[in-house]
User: Fold Multidrug transporter from Helicobacter pylori.
Amino acid sequence: MAKKKHKISTLKYFLRSLKQIYMLITFKEKMVFFLLVLMAVFSSFVEVMSLTLLMPFITLASDPSRALDDKDWKMVYDFFHFSSPVRLMYFFSFCLVGIYLFRMFYGVSFTYLKGRFSNKKAYQIKQQLFLQHIKSNYLSHLNHNLDSLRDIINNKAEGMFASFNAFLSLLTEITVIVFFYSTLLITNWKITLVFTLIISIQIFIITEKITVLIQKKGEIAAKSRAQTLKVFSKFFSNFKITKLKDNHEEAHKLFGENSRKAHDTEIIYATLQVVPRYSLETVGFSLLILAVAYILFKYGEAKMVLPTISMYALALYRTLPSVTGVLNQYNEIAYNQLATNIVFKSLTKTIVEEDLVPLDFNEKITLQNISFAYKSKHPVLKNFNLTIQKGQKVALIGHSGCGKSTLADIIMGLTYPKSGEIFIDNTLLTNENRRSWRKKIGYIPQNIYLFDGTVGDNIAFGSAIDEKRLIKVCKMAHIYDFLCEHEGLKTQVGEGGAKLSGGQKQRIGIARALYDNPEILVLDEATSALDNETESKIMDEIYQIAKNKTLIVIAHRLSTIERCEVIIDMSQHKDNLG
Assistant:
């Protein structure tokens, strides 16, 4: 019972992968795909013709005078008015060479078009995955760690691309088989059916045993690669801790174990991929050899069946690789079914579309009856009301977990409330204007993220580089003098800002927040990790910068918020929730 279940499961996964691949192709791409299928059919026809013409060529080459005894050859001979059978042989030779030249150019062109189509689709899938995840809402992003995103966009996308390529090759090989099989049926349908029965039993055994194993190995490889990325990030993202703990041996062991699993499965997969080929070729040609041996044993010669045997030998020589190809492509799709499924779910996941409808902020931000709760948790906010006047300095205080950062995320339009409304002046904040609203906000977190690049690139953070604006915000953030002592805006910060002090990183964070000239500044525990002297200096600078801006400060230290006009204790609201 278990074996039968595995068989059905493998076929189900295979069909699901094909369906998912097909659903991700646009109508225009389906038309191109259909043309490629037609090209594959014609390619198969050329393959069959180039091989089937070899037999009459060999026959004619052995005795050109036979052309006068054969009805078809005689018709060609008379039509072109050849002076001798040898000249017919020359003509046929040139025609056959022409066919093989055409076969070569057509095959190369078809391979290029097929590769171009599949690689272009792979590129589009990666672009769509990147866009899908970067457009996803903030809460959805929190549910994905960075390693899983890297794995999906790189490894899983490559796995789906391999399945997509395999799908195209599968159809090509099937058309080759159909053409050759039809030719063999016409030649001798009885022998062909006997061959079919034996080969079919063998294929059934291969798919029953090998494909199930390949599918399992594919899942192990996919999970091992994802785990390898996690191990890499775990130890290299916290390199100082790794060095202090001196656990490089443990890191090396974990990385090695997961890498070995992935590579071991690749070895097994590569080995299993050639089993169908050798198995089918051994059985197919063994049957052919035994048939010849039997005819020699019974009749003493095989001259009368030599053309038929030669035809089967040529057909097997070309068809068996195609049968093997079909099995290999089937196994390839089964091997990558997990990757295909993950990519498909990512691409078909509904995301909330947000627009850039202009939004003015001249008077106030109003929150009415805002309620919010994380999944399977008690409410963080319930019927919360707040009004922030333009230019006001507002502090959000309270113990950890009371909802300060959550409220700030809702105000910034990063998180959507479960109920309630937010008004900017008298305009309701919706998905149509949410992106415009976020462009008005500069955000300074506690931990400033800096990537390995220049100060200028880190401040602009993907926005267009404007050197004058960069210098201006660097001066406002009081980091410009430090940069002048080094390489200016081209000063390298190191991975995570490793080459900078905590205060310098914080100033770059301030410059980044100011770069797009926001109307609102949000400080989320922005100075809590700094010493009192550095914090006091930076807060003086921030209050000076935010003189004509709306400022929202999340903090624990009273010294940080002493100049705020409105102080909201979120702990009291949390206590009221019970």
